[in-house]
Every structure is written in C-alpha cells, then in structure tokens.
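REQUEST
  id: r-88c1
  op: predict_structure
  target: LysR family transcriptional regulator
  payload:
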Amino acid sequence: MDRFNAMRVFTRIVELGGFAKAADSLQLPRASVTILIKQLEAHLGVQLLQRTTRQVSPTLDGAAYYQRCVSLLADLEETEAVFSTSRRNPRGTLRIDMPAGIGRFIVIPALPEFTARYPQIDLEIGLNDRPVDLIREGVDCVLRGGLALDESLVARPLAMMDQVTCASPDYLLRIGVPNNLDELAGHQVVEYFSSASGKRYGLEFLIGNDIRLVDLPKQVAVNSADGYLAACVAGYGLVQTPYYHARRELQAGTLVEVLPALLPPPLPLTALYPPHRQLSQRVRVFVDWLVELCARPGSGLTR
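RESPONSE
  id: r-88c1
  status: 200
  body:
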C-alpha cells in the first residue's frame, strides 16, 4: 500500500463527503479508492470513516487523522518542490473559485498569460456568488469581494475595487435624476441579498471618512451579481456594483451613472485559501499572478 497515496485519497473523501466524488476528483477507479481505505484502516487498526446510505463522515479517530494528513501532505508537497524543478515549473491541478463577473471580465481574459507561464498547471475554475467550503469541496483558493470574515483562512488582499451607483435610462426618465442624497426620496433600489447569510444590501455612500447608509424601498431582490445588474437594466431601481461589472452597460448607454460626485465605498477583493495550502507552489504562483494582474493600470477594477 502506498501510504501517501492512501492519505490523499482519505483526505479527499473527507473533503468531498463520499467515495465516488473522491474517485472522480482524483481520476481513480472507485474500486481502487475503496480498497485503499480498507487497507489504510487495517494498517492503522482503527475505523476512519463512518459510512451511511447518504453520506460518509470521519469518525473521531478519522477527524484527528485527517488533520495530521493535511499537514503531512502539505509538508511533503513543499519538500518535493524545494528539491525538484516543480518550484520553477509547478504542476498539477489547481482548483479555484471566484464570482462569475470577476472570472468573465478580469481573470479569464488574462488567463492565457498565466497558463503560458505555468503550462503544467491544470485549472478547474468555479464561477458563482455562493460561499464555498474550501475544505469540504476540495477547493485550493477562492476570490471574494467584500470583507474576509472567515478567520480560519489565509487572506491575501488583491485590490480595492471602485464601485458605481447606476440606473437605467428608462427608470430615470420615469422617476427623475437625483442630484443629491435628499433627492433619493421617492426612488427605489434593486436589493441584493446573500443566500448564505440572508444579509441584505442597499445603498452606501462615502461622505468624508464616514459611510452613509440610505434605506430605500424595493420591488425586486436578487441573490446573484448578474441578476442584480439585469434587474437594474430592466428598470427596477438603483444599484451599486463594482465598476468592472457595469462598465459595458455604462459604455453602451443601457445604464447611467447616478450621483457621480458621491461615490460608494470601494470594495476589497481578496484571495483566500486554507492554511494547509499556504506552502503549495501552485497556489502561491497563482495568487502572486493575481496580485500582479490587479495592480496593473487598466485591470478594470478601477476607473
């Protein structure tokens, strides 16, 4: 039995919650995964996994063993990188997740540069706005807008994204163009809400060093960035969104900037990854490239 391979299989089963998912993720036959776990449990003399008809979860011994495996495998990967060409030419699969807009407008258009620089890294990219459980879903790194709230993850700041307040021409023709905060009375917003936390977001304006919240009624609320912008284009009210996300609509005239002298606060963009991935050369070169990309003039994150 290859114990390190068995550890990799075991950790992936814990992270994905099933033998079949782990086998598919590692591109191994499902029978091989089952045999490896049986051999590992026999070698250790303990039961590592509790199997039910619906899910697979670690036992108490399995949970403790998982933590040690994660640490050992991270140390092994870094040690191999130090003494091999993989430090200069990292290889393997890198699983990343990011908001759809960041992927479509910022990262993926520039990605050929990264893959040309690191041709032996294969990328699996998830594009969505929902929170991702990095450990359970086997994701190496995520990009997120807003404050990084999970203190168990390593956070690498990437940029402060400009935001813009906007509305459709049809909406402004019907309701009027506000020239100051007082004139927002009588207007409405498209409300964005988090499907995970239930938190709802209205309008915020940066007045000096203070943030002024403006509470307006809404007719439509959505939980995706694309839907949020689409509802604005459809005339359901004012929105505040990162500039990169609305840039094409603003240039095309399907959206109009409102209150340009009163800006929303900038939105942090952060790369997050589990502590055990901190030494991964694949994660390191990707995050370093993101820092480089976001710092360039014309990145699209600022005006």
